[in-house]
Specification:
heterodimer, A: about 120 residues, 12 strands, about 0% helix, globular, B: about 120 residues
């Protein structure tokens, strides 16, 4: 069974600075998807970024980028030029390429952004 | 973008009663919807996969007779918590699967259930 681990329960960053959130996962599959979701205080889950495992190039979405290390089964999220609105819970998630039903979530990292 | 709504956003019910939570895809049709449960300061745990016109697929450990799921149309799935107990108090989140241009889940805003 696949598992997703986020070892940082809380992180903090100063506004305009850069922060990296860690995520590791375990799977025996060779092809899969990885995601970072943001859950602000409103509790609405928002997709931040997605990575297909067969793509070597790291995904980027504006200020958000990932460092995908397939061999190490690591998938970290880098937030550049942090903004107050980035404060939220961030969840890393895994989805099998062969089973579109399940998103397996990590335990989350609470990000605080200080002015 | 794809929008998913949930109703109600908050509900308080007495122990032993049943409560229904609705999940709607507002601007698209969803053959597949998902129901998650989130305890305070914890992650989302998939409870079941809801498929339009067929029975839901429940995750291991989830009581299908307690958490009744109905997906009667391509835009509506409902979760009914039957004979609710205080330990059923939680945050319930649904999502709907969009398949074009690629498979992606869009989440509803969640429903806070409190059982007294």
């Amino acid at each position: 069974a696949q598992t997703v681990t986020q070892s940082q329960p809380e992180m903090s960053v100063q506004e305009a600075e850069t922060v990296t959130l860690s995520c590791t996962y375990d799977t025996s599959e060779s092809d899969y998807y990885l995601f970072w979701y943001k859950q602000p205080p409103s509790r609405q889950m928002i997709l931040v970024i997605r990575q297909e495992a067969y793509k070597q190039q790291n995904a980027t979405e504006n200020r958000f980028s990932v460092n995908f290390q397939k061999a190490a089964k690591s998938f970290s999220l880098k937030i550049s030029d942090s903004q107050l609105g980035d404060a939220a819970m961030y969840f890393c998630a895994y989805r099998s390429l062969y089973n579109t039903d399940k998103l397996i979530f990590g335990t989350g990292t609470r990000l605080q952004v200080f002015p | 973008g794809a929008v998913v709504s949930q109703h109600p956003s908050r509900v308080i019910c007495k122990s032993g009663t049943s409560v229904k939570i609705e999940c709607r895809s507002l601007d698209f049709q969803a053959t597949t919807m998902f129901w998650y449960r989130q305890f305070p300061k914890q992650s989302l745990m998939l409870m079941a996969t809801s498929n339009e016109g067929s029975k839901a697929t429940y995750e291991q450990g989830v009581e299908k007779d307690k958490f009744l799921i109905n997906h009667a149309s391509l835009t509506l799935s409902t979760l009914t918590v039957t004979s609710a107990h205080p330990e059923d108090s939680s945050f319930y989140i649904c999502s709907a699967l969009v398949t074009v241009p690629r498979d992606e889940q869009y989440f509803g805003p969640g429903t806070r259930l409190t059982v007294t």
